[in-house]
Design brief:
extended, 92 residues, mainly alpha
């Protein structure tokens, strides 16, 4: 028995195994995701990286593209006017 109670809404099941998808990333991308300033799904990282790699042919430029996209997302303000950073939540 699960804790959803009685509802007529359909349950959504996640497709795939995020840990397995992470393990399948090349070491270069695994390190980037590990050190990222915000949470990324392995699928999103791989999609952006492969698109940039195909366009430029350089893994360094592809990683720079990931940094650029992450910077844009982090620079956006939350609805409360604060900047978002997951790393700030873990600082002691």
């Amino acid at each position: 028995m699960d804790n959803l109670g009685q509802t007529k809404l359909k349950k959504k099941r996640k497709k795939g195994d995020p840990m397995h998808e992470f393990d399948c990333l090349p070491p270069l991308l695994r390190r980037w995701v590990r050190d990222a300033d915000m949470p990324w799904s392995p699928i999103s990282v791989k999609r952006v990286y492969m698109k940039a790699l195909k366009k430029t042919g350089s893994s360094g430029i592809a990683l720079a593209e990931l940094d650029k996209i992450q910077g844009k997302r982090l620079s956006k303000k939350t609805p409360h006017g604060e900047r978002y950073s997951i790393r700030e939540n873990f600082k002691s």
